[in-house]
């Protein structure tokens, strides 16, 4: 009753739906609930009047709570039918657990009243109550015939008065948002489409429209709000920074402009799809629980079967287990298999939806960035942007899909090792040694995989840029007869990409082959070692062999997931870095242009004051200077190391007695040496770098009327 009351109060205030009729399913459901109430009332009266010790005060209290819950469920059934279009998830949970919790007292009462069994009144009433609870649960899963068209009068009026152009109307909306929890869990909402596909080939008009939660425009609005908020906070911090204040006081207004806010890509993605992505962990945990309880139940089922053998009777001197135990183990194994499959399907579906949302966000960000790129970054060409939007996004989304598989694989390995330790004790560490050696080999090979993957993607960018430029200038190429030259250029770029791809797949093949050899080696080592050190009271019997082989076989899935995820992790990390660098690259400075919306304020249409025009922006020039300085420092360190090694390799007498001609010339004419160094230092100054990177026009003033 406590569980149903909040839902009842919410449903009563909703108002009645138009077009709701009393269906045979609803009438039969109400009759079944009334019979349930009568049966539970009979159980309460019988328990209260019986002097049997088995039916004490706890039975009376539970029957009273059942009556209160049934009364609330009856009211909720009535208001749910006339006020809500969908089935009630609260009622579904209530009837399911009522039926499940009634199974155990039913069995106990039947065994307690033996040899009468079902001839007694109370076990029969309890069995009837359990069957009716399952029946009402099944009937509650049947939706109303016209649930898609049901609406309230006030809701219809409000929708009609609203701006209908802003609300997209779908021709064939998906029934998933209107389905209850158990229809979503079992994918029962797809049955009409599957039934239609069985009768005739499906057409595009038959397919459901996309779930409104997966549409790209709402995701874009959420992402844009997050980006705008982060950018505003970053700009505020930059404006208050001490370095910027000092630059402003010195008269350098470009310091604020050069501090471009960086996009927190991981935070933005998590803000948009984080809830959906984290929700996928719930069915994954349930899948692991039900999947790894099966070998335990299977082991107990084998123990039950062996209790009926003559060898068990001779060695233990005990009677065989009761048939109830075997039936219970069998039902538990089947139920665990079904539930693990259902939760695995839910995990795959939720994870796919999260990946779909992430793909939409990434493509939106890349498209948004491509419209705001500066002229310097646009020189990379459309080929690089196409690679970001297709290849890089695909690889990051693939990495996005395997994150849950990655942590769950480690959890599954730990659970399997614990179960194996329960069966074969310390011999599991022998098999762990095999796993550790092979995984160390895999770890040694991983850097080579990452290195070749990164080089392959860089070569792919170069090839795409060449092809894009070739297609753009195909007329000039054909006119001047440059086909052979450009064919050789593209072929060389393609050969370079194929070389890195061959190396990448060669290392991946080696790693996958080693990992696939783990399974048979572990079985062989584990059983061989345990057969040699097994204690007399725990021999290597059939039950232990089957359970050990099953558990080791279950290790194959998580290890396979780790194998498949390795390449996705490497490529996803590289692609994520490329996307982050692209999204944080330099943009057009909007503060350079001041727009005057008042047309009467001035007759000047376009005006430039103290403008500087060049091929590269100041940010790009600063980046080149910084890169050149780092290269010079690296070169100086390498030369110092070479000089140090050469000094060690030269005999001491020769090094002290003889000097190079270059050193002597420098010592004899220090002015000339300093003069030689002056042009190099001058070339590193900002104005020289400005001019060396293309023609630059300074202090341009222009007016267009």
TrEMBL record:
It is a multi-pass membrane protein. GO terms for cellular component: membrane. This is Canalicular multispecific organic anion transporter 1. Residues 651-663 have a biased composition (Polar residues). Keywords: ATP-binding, Membrane, Nucleotide-binding, Transmembrane, Transmembrane helix, Transport. It is found in: Membrane. Its main location: membrane. PANTHER family: ABC TRANSPORTER ATNG, ATP-BINDING CASSETTE SUB-FAMILY C. It comes from Linnemannia exigua. GO terms for molecular function: ABC-type transporter activity; ATP binding. The gene is ABCC2_1.
């Amino acid at each position: 009753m406590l569980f149903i009351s909040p839902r009842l109060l919410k449903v009563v205030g909703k108002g009645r739906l138009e077009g709701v009729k009393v269906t045979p399913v609803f009438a039969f459901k109400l009759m079944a609930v009334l019979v349930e109430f009568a049966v539970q009332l009979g159980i309460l009266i019988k328990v209260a009047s019986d002097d049997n010790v088995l039916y004490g005060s706890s039975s009376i209290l539970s029957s009273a709570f059942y009556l209160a819950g049934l009364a609330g469920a009856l009211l909720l059934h009535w208001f749910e039918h006339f006020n809500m279009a969908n089935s009630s998830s609260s009622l579904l949970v209530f009837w399911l657990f009522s039926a499940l919790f009634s199974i155990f007292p039913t069995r106990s009462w039947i065994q307690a009243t033996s040899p009468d069994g079902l001839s007694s009144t109370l076990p029969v009433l309890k069995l009837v109550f359990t069957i009716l609870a399952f029946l009402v649960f099944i009937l509650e899963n049947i939706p109303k015939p016209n649930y898609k068209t049901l609406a309230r009068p006030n809701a219809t009026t409000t929708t009609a008065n609203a701006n209908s152009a802003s609300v997209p109307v779908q021709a064939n909306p998906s029934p998933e948002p209107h389905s209850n929890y158990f229809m979503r869990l079992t994918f029962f909402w797809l049955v009409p489409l599957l039934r239609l596909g069985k009768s005739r080939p499906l057409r595009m008009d038959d397919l459901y429209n996309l779930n409104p939660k997966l549409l790209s425009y709402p995701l874009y609005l959420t992402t844009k709000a997050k980006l705008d908020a982060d950018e505003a906070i970053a700009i505020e911090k930059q404006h208050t920074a001490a370095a910027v204040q000092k630059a402003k006081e010195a008269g350098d207004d470009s310091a604020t402009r050069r501090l471009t806010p960086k996009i927190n890509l991981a935070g933005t993605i998590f803000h948009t799809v984080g809830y959906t992505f984290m929700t996928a962990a719930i069915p994954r945990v349930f899948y692991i629980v039900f999947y790894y309880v099966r070998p335990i139940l299977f082991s107990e089922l084998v123990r039950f079967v062996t209790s009926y053998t003559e060898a068990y009777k001779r060695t233990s001197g005990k009677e065989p287990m009761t048939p109830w135990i075997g039936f219970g183990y069998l039902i538990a194994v089947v139920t665990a298999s079904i539930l693990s499959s259902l939760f695995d399907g839910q995990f795959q579906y939720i994870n796919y939806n999260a990946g779909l949302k992430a793909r939409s966000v990434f493509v939106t960000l890349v498209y948004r960035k491509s419209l705001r790129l500066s002229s310097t970054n646009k020189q990379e060409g459309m080929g690089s942007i196409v690679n970001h939007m297709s290849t890089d996004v695909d690889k990051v989304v693939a990495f996005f899909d395997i994150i849950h598989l990655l942590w769950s694989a480690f959890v599954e390995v730990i659970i399997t090792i614990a179960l194996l330790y329960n069966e074969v004790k310390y011999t599991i560490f022998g098999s762990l040694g095999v796993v550790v050696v092979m995984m160390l080999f895999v770890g040694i090979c991983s850097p080579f995989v990452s290195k070749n993957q990164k080089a392959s993607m860089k070569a792919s960018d170069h090839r795409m840029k060449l092809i894009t430029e070739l297609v753009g200038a195909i007329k000039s190429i054909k006119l001047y007869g440059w086909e052979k030259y450009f064919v050789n250029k593209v072929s060389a770029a393609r050969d370079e990409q194929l070389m890195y791809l061959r190396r990448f797949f060669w290392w991946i093949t080696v790693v996958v082959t080693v990992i696939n050899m783990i399974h048979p080696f572990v079985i062989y080592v584990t059983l061989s070692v345990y057969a040699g050190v097994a204690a007399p009271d725990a021999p290597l019997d059939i039950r232990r062999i089957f359970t050990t082989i099953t558990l080791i076989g279950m290790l194959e899935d998580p290890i396979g997931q780790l194998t498949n995820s390795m390449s996705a992790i490497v490529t996803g990390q590289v692609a994520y870095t490329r996307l982050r660098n692209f999204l944080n690259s330099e943009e057009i400075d909007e503060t350079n242009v001041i727009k005057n919306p008042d047309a009467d304020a001035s007759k000047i249409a376009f005006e430039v004051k103290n403008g500087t025009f060049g091929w590269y922006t100041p940010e790009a020039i600063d980046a080149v200077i910084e890169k050149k300085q780092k290269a010079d420092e690296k070169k100086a360190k390498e030369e110092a190391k070479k000089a140090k090694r050469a000094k060690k390799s030269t005999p001491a007498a020769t090094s002290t007695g003889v000097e190079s001609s270059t050193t002597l010339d420098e010592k004899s004419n220090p002015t000339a040496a300093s003069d030689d160094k002056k042009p190099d230092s001058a070339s590193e100054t900002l104005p020289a770098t400005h001019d060396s990177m293309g023609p630059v026009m300074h202090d341009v003033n222009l007016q267009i009327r």
